[in-house]
Specification:
With 199 residues, the protein is an alpha+beta fold. It has a single domain, classed as Pnp Oxidase, Chain A (Roll). It contains four helices and nine strands. Strands 1, 2, 3, 4, 5, 6, 7, 8 and 9 form a nine-stranded antiparallel sheet that branches. Strand 5 and strand 6 form a beta hairpin. Bound molecules: flavin mononucleotide.
């Protein structure tokens, strides 16, 4: 006999895991995969989940403004997110639009959260992904041997970007020995339409 399971409660459990994983570095959703279109075809890479807003759902991560994913988003805002948590046996797949934030309240809050040592990723010697004549860590000389200070951090503004992901579609899969569960959802003006899907 089939169990009676509430579709909305199941999806809420995925979102609550997603939200928890922002602060919990050991959570499987803390590192997500972000997909874009490029002139070479699809591109995918890992990024750290930095913020999740519910109602409406928005997903955020940080990146370098000169990285190729930025020009790919500028070319085509249609993007995707994948996340899998081995411990909770949940997979989330989203399609949606990405916006590049370089100002505004959310951008400023994320900048305020950025630790001076993490700001080193943005104080780069070369544009990210540019070819190098020989090995270089891409950390500017000044910060090879010392962490940036709060004052140094202020100079990352021109390189620091926050990506805001606005989902249009979701596919959520929960692996269970007694029977997997899968749902799909469409984010519409009127709200989220969820439906069961064969796992
Ligand atoms: C565990 C892990 C976390 C990462 N987190 C980020 C991140 O939060 N933001 C980011 O831009 N790149 C992050 N990266 C590096 C990207 O995966 C990627 O190599 C880099 O951003 C260049 O991507 P692009 O050339 O497609 O723009 C991370 C890589 C790993 C392995």
């Amino acid at each position: 006999m089939n169990e009676q399971i509430d579709l909305n409660s199941l999806y809420e459990s995925f979102l609550s895991d997603l939200q928890r994983s922002v602060e919990d570095r050991s959570h499987g959703f803390h590192i997500i995969q972000f997909g874009t279109w490029s002139h070479k075809g699809p591109q995918i890479r890992s990024v750290v989940l930095r913020r999740v807003e519910l109602n409406p759902l928005r997903i955020y991560f940080h990146t370098h403004l000169e990285s190729p994913k930025i020009s790919e988003i500028r070319e085509n805002e249609m993007t995707a997110i994948h996340a899998y948590c081995g411990q909770c046996r949940k997979q989330l797949r989203f399609q949606g639009r990405s916006r590049i934030l370089t100002s505004g309240p959310i951008y400023q809050e994320q900048m305020d959260h950025l630790s001076p040592s993490a700001s080193r990723c943005y104080l780069t010697a070369f544009p990210p992904s540019s070819a190098l004549p020989s090995y270089h860590s891409n950390i500017i000389d000044q910060f090879q041997d010392r962490a940036p200070t709060m004052d140094d951090k202020l100079s990352v503004y021109p390189q620091f970007a926050v990506i805001e992901f606005i989902p249009s579609d979701v596919d959520a899969l929960f692996l269970r020995a007694q029977g997997h569960m899968r749902l799909q959802g469409i984010y519409q003006e009127t709200g989220l339409q969820l439906t069961w899907v064969a796992p």
